[in-house]
Each structure stands twice: as C-alpha cells, then as structure tokens.
Specification:
The complex is a heterodimer of chains A (133) and B (64). Chain A has 133 residues and is mainly α. In chain A, 86% of the residues lie in helices and 0% in strands. Classes of the chains: A mainly alpha (133), B mainly alpha (64). At the A-B interface, helix 3 of A face helix 2 and helix 3 of B.
C-alpha cells in the first residue's frame, strides 16, 4: 500500500505541476501580447503553441493518474464526468441560445462553460464519493 | 450482491487497510464492498476468494 501511495502522490504531483504550468502559460498567452510584447504576431503564436503543448501534457498526466485509480475510484470519476459532460452540453447550449436571442445581459463566453464544468464535476465527485461511503 | 467479506476479514484478524493492501485496492473500496454498496470486478473477486480459500460463489451471493 505504501508503494501504491507513493506512486499515487508522484502522479498527483506531476498533474499539479502540468496544471499550474498550463495556467501560467495561459496567462502569458492572454496578457503577453498586451503588456509584454506589444502584439508581436510570432511571439503570440509561439505563446499559444506552448500553452497548447502544455495542455496536452496536462491531459496525459491526468490520464496517468486516472489509470492508477482502483475500480471504485474509476467508477466515481466516470459517473462524475458523465454528469458533468451531459450538463455542460445541455446547459451550455441553453446558455448559448439565450445569448443568441439576447435574453441575457452578457455574452456567453467559453470561460463560463469552463467554470461550470469545473463546479459540476466537483459537486458530482463529492456526491458520488458520499454515496459509496 | 451479498457477501461475507466483513465476517471473513475479522475472523482472520485483518483490518480493512490490511485487506486493501493485499488485494491492491483502496480501503474505501473494501469498505464499499463490505457495505454492499459496490460490486467488485471479477479479478478482485478472484483475489478475495483465493485469499479466503473459497470459491467466488461461497464469498458472494448474487441476488438476481
């Protein structure tokens, strides 16, 4: 079990490193053209490509961690992902329709969808974890 | 699915943590199986049956 815990911690740390560096490169790609390199096209494309590559490595680290979960943990995560994905598609499209018809006072930005997915996944994880306690 | 896991484990003087370590799953998974909230996979059921020296049918009772 100690070996399992050590391996789990290693994979969690790896995911944390890639997640934080993805957030950092996202911030650089977003604010760099405005505050650092004055809209230089090559640097902007370079920053976006670095961010994309970082994102792919973050996904691979997440897959590595998922593959280390045992059968119950995998079930809990899969159920949570199913709920989160379903809600993101249904609520996301409803939100988009409301925006297209100007029935909401703000734009349906992708950021709202990302936040919504994160929150629904977290809530679904908490509920599913309690169900199997 | 009903099972005799808790009785067999305590009879052997093992904790959930001990059993989890031998089987290669988390303690939470052992707890969920004992409370009959989660049915284990076939490889896990085989490992448990082998550990307690009985058949899967003796350890788990399917309620169809």
């Amino acid at each position: 079990m100690e070996t399992m815990k050590l391996e789990r911690n290693k994979r969690v740390k790896k995911l944390a490193v890639w997640t934080w560096s993805w957030v950092a490169t996202m911030a650089i790609a977003t604010f760099g053209p405005i505050y650092i390199w004055d809209d230089h096209a090559f640097l902007t494309i370079f920053a976006i490509v670095v961010n994309l590559a970082n994102g792919i490595l973050m996904i691979l680290a997440n897959r590595d961690l998922f593959n280390h979960f045992d059968e119950l943990e995998k079930k809990i995560h899969l159920e949570s992902m199913a709920i989160s994905l379903g809600l993101a598609v249904v609520v996301g499209l409803t939100f988009s329709l409301l925006d297209q018809r100007d029935l909401i006072p703000f734009d349906a930005d992708i950021g709202f969808l990302v936040m919504f997915i994160g929150i629904t996944y977290l809530v679904a994880m908490l509920i599913n974890t309690r169900r199997y306690k | 699915m009903k099972n005799r896991l808790r009785d067999l484990r305590t009879a052997k003087g093992m904790t959930q943590e001990d059993l989890a370590e031998i089987i290669g799953v988390s303690r939470q998974t052992i707890n969920a199986i004992e409370k009959e909230k989660f049915d284990p996979s076939l490889p896990t059921a085989f490992k448990m049956a082998k550990l307690f020296e009985m058949t899967i049918e003796e350890l788990f009772q399917f309620e169809g």
